[in-house]
Amino acid sequence: MAPVIIAIHGLRNKPPRYLLANWWKKSIAEGFKIINLPVPRFRLEMAYWSHYMHPRTQDPSESDQDSPRYLWEPYIEGEMFGPRDPRAFRKQISNSVHQQLLELVAGKSGFMNIDAVSNMILRRMFVELDTYYHKKLRDEHGRMVPARELIREELARLLRAYRAHTIMVLAHSMGCIVAYDVMLHVVPDIPVHTLVTMGCPLGFPVILRKITQELNLGATDPGTKLPTPPGLMRRWLNFSDLDDVTCLNYNLRNHYAENSHGVRPFDQIVYNNYEHDGVANPHKSYGYLRCAELTQAFNTFLCIENATLWQRVKWIFSRPKM
Length: 322
Fold this sequence. Notes:
Radius of gyration: 20 Å
CATH architecture: 3-Layer(aba) Sandwich
Oligomer: single chain
Helix content: 25-40%
Strand content: 15-25%
Order of helices and strands: EHEHHHHHEEHEHEHEEEEEEHHH
CATH class: Alpha Beta
């Protein structure tokens, strides 16, 4: 069956599903154009869960900046493709020092190993994460359902629907947590060719602790690695911009073990060039989706490994859409 990209978005309120999916597709197409490759036809399905937490979706026509529907960061084409000047503190410290800092925060005696403190950090920093782990939301029938079950089902439903296809799961921000949970706990039997995570918090100490608790691992040795989902068949590509604060620890390879197919995270540093009205946001999905390293991943999945012979011949003789 034809390859399909099943995407899942991250934190905060979003524009409607159709518009968000369209902007993700435009971002991916922009990446192909930037490196002068023909833009392939591809199917992208969006696992959309923002409406459960934010019933009033963002609206591009809303002009009142005080309205919850105001769209602060729309999709716009990139202009400067970097790299930016190295200036962040994290770029100036060695990996060993970085690991020592993480140990201070998340190690055996680190303060984030105290449940009350961990939960407080979740509440203060990521309201959606606190809801995901601890609260209930109203479903389409008006029933109150544990938030994590409701949100996970959005992705699980699409994976079941396309299980006969070759699947790439494309996850951003909190969507990476949901994708990992779904592939590990809900539909571990459905094969996924490639998992792409970007701006991923799966190395964040609080998240590592939550995953450990859900797996009933109890107190584990700091060197113990968490499982890579069993249905992940070919690769797990993790992309991080070092100025993206969500990637507290971008080295997922240090925390997740190989599955039975020999797959574990491959971490890669990229440059996210998203900027709107002079304000940069190195966490924004649109900037990740058009960077050259992700374009190479899309090209491998769509045009090299899973394309038909006719598609390959057609793309060879196609001119890039500029």
